[in-house]
Amino acid sequence: MKRETREYNYDWDIWTILENAAMVCDGTPKEYRSLLSLIPHFGTALDAFMKQGEPGVLFIKLLAKYIRRCLTAGGEGKKTVLTSFSMATPILYALDIVPICLEAFTIFGTVVLKRGTSEFLDYCCELGFTETSCSSQRGALGAFLSGLATRPDMIVCNSPGWCDSNANSYSFASAYLDIPFYQLNYPSEVSGKRSATYHRQDYRNLIAFLEGHSGNRLDLDMLRDIIDETIRQDELINDLCDLQMLVPNPVPNIYDLMIYGAKSCMNGRPELTEVLESMVRHAKANAANGASGNSTEYEKARGLFCYIDHYTTDARLWDWLDRNGISHLGSILCRYWQADASYAVGRGDEAYRVEKGSLDGMIDSLADMTARMPMVKQIRGPYDAPQMWLEDNLNLARLLKADFVVYFSTVGCRNTWGAVKLLVRDLEKKGFPSLLLFLDSFDDRVMSWEAVTDKMSEFIHVRGIVS
Amino acid sequence: MIDAMKDIAQTISNSHVKRWKDQGKKIIGYPCTFVPDEIIHAAGMLPFRLRGINTTTLSIGDTYFGPVICSFPKCILQLAGQGDYSFLDGVVIVNGCDSMRRLDECWRKAGEDYAGTVPGFFHYMGVPHKVADYSLAWYADELRAFMERLEEHFGVAVPASSLRKSIKLYNQGRRLLIDLDSLRSSPDSPLTGEDAAAIVLAGFAMPREDYTGTLKKIVKGLKKTTPVTNGRKRLMVVGSTSDDLDFIKLIESSGGVVVSDTMCFGSRSYHDLVDEEGDPIEALASRYLSHKFCPRMFGYYRERLEFIQERARMARVDGVILQNIRFCDLHGSENGIFERDLEAQGIPCMRMEREYGPLVETGRIKMRIDAFMERIS
Fold this sequence. Notes:
- The complex is a heterodimer.
- Chain A is α/β, with parallel strands linked by helices.
- Helix content of chain A is about 50%, strand content about 5%.
- Chain A contains 19 helices and eight strands.
- Chain A has a four-stranded parallel beta sheet, with helices on both faces. A four-stranded parallel beta sheet of chain A has the order 6-5-7-8, with helices on both faces.
- In chain A, α11 packs parallel to α13 (about 270-290).
- By secondary structure, chain B is α/β, with parallel strands linked by helices.
- Chain B has a domain at about 15-160: Rossmann fold (3-Layer(aba) Sandwich).
- Chain B has helices spanning about 1-10, 15-20, 35-40, 60-65, 70-80, 100, 105-115, 135-155, 160-185, 195-200, 210-220, 245-250, 280-290, 300-315, 330-345, 360-375; strands at about 25-30, 45-50, 90-95, 120-125, 235-240, 255-260, 320-325, 350-355.
- In chain B, the strands form two sheets. In chain B, strands 2-1-3-4 form a four-stranded parallel beta sheet.
- In chain B, α12 (about 245-250) links the parallel β5 (about 235-240) and β6.
- Chain B starts with a helix and ends with a helix.
- The mean pLDDT of chain B is about 95.
């Protein structure tokens, strides 16, 4: 690791960038335009959000607030837990524990830092990680392992059962840093009484672990408030999904990132509700005008991302799609399987419903919710089994009227790389042109962004998706 | 006898398999130590651990699996697609790790393109990644479901009494292997690591009754054999699955002798016994799931470290080779912490990434082993 990289803590570095960005949001347009020239490495990314107007500004403010909370928690006597994007955070907030979402921190670094997270990715390999371990954890984990990020009090992962590489990163961190560890483990089936019982027992043990290590007790009133907030957030996310079904799609491309970026940090917090409300308001205004959410006049094509997006410097994916008149119909990361979501209607207990009548009901609901978080639901069993990856993608591709499907991933994703060729073959058979690219969404060294756009352009033209 | 074991260990369809099939009996393949052999044995069938040895191409494996997947399941799929596993009447796949779990879909889909390569009985079994009362209950249910499907598909019955007999038989074999381990790890080890690996590997590919009988004779004979150590450096091999005798032979060609291991085609498979009392399924579930020596069981690093330390102490090892197959995140990264912690205790370690399959990188491996031997000499 370069000496200058060791000069500043990774999380503080990101926080200062985002905190300043959040302050810029309150400046005049002239001030903002002048500032952009002074931050060449982050300006494009900042502008990608700022040009969305109020939702983008609120999103940047949410991130700044979230990171500040992560950094100052210890000083305020609060416990922190290093956890993953797939962990539903309401239970942590209800226990007054601050979640440090590892993958979110990787995305922050990937998007805003000049050199991305490459040195931290490599640092993990110096400690023993294989160089193809998942970069979505390694990117920020290298900072935690090297002491360049605030040491968490606990580690909780909920990936055993659907992602070894993810779970391995957290268990490695626990063993390496000697930090208490808890895993939520998932059986191969989502629904049915047997799975529900397993999920709920495991979740209750999680609560006992969190209470034991934080010294906090679950506060019923706080939990109820957070549940209310979560219900409202679910409704708003479902609204956005409904809007995405319209042609043209009135939801701006980058809302996809904003939904899961904000949710993985602030799920259950009012700040998320505020961002989502603003996003829905703006998307509805577009819909009322019959306008696309993108800046181009026409919607030329609609693309569904069956797994994750691409995050390397400057958040260029969404912008590239926008410039090419392509609507981003969301990725696996913004499907949460609340029972009223259009894609979940009539799917029984494949989806979750929140009950707030009793403490037990609320805990069970949160267990059910966590068990259906992105990826937790879709890739825990055979890809072609009912309720799994293929069925979900076909359902969404039809519902959202996708013209094509894209698979982006990391080279560490053993689970999906083990089945994605089969998935793509099946999607093609069902009439959805599908693009599979060997790239790493967090590391341009695997495939450069220029090569990615070349391949995507070639695909959409050769397959006649865009003429 | 050890030569006979080597023959079995180096072929897929060995003479025992042929004889078994000639008798009209069934064979069930399984990929991982989280599948209890006892259930298959109690059903009157031969449990056969799937391996990927002797592959010369991955044309089929690479067609279905993606590019960053461990070559072990790819080699298995390759052999299946080529028809080398045509003697199997059934297969049970488990989520041992993410690469292995996708063998389920890849094999099924390959079966659509290569007719007759998917056995009539094809079963997927989910194994939890933690030990808790509810995960044990889940796993016990999975074992019951597996047994019921076997009974239903093959029209056999597996009474508890048969299961108990199988448990006893397998425990007997494990005790003998533990005896073998004691001999192997003694100061005057009477057999090489290559021989020891061959003996253990053969147990996954031949009828247990025959195996136990042969094993008894081998252990008895070894007690009278002259030592092979003769001042050679004593090594332990840790990490990813390895069923390649040539790999161990290569290590030993540098002047060491492998006196211990913690691999799943090695001591991990026989280290602990199944309780012979009580409900046999519960007993199997308890033994197999409590088996935390595989890093797929997340959060048990300390237990695994202690297991290695205990075995290293017992075998008085001079050095530990921490190896992993390329793309094996679980063993690969954990080896990094093992190295840190074992070195801190004065146990020299080397980490090595390698490919599964026919040993094609002997030069590189040999050079690294030689360098390690120099270090510990």
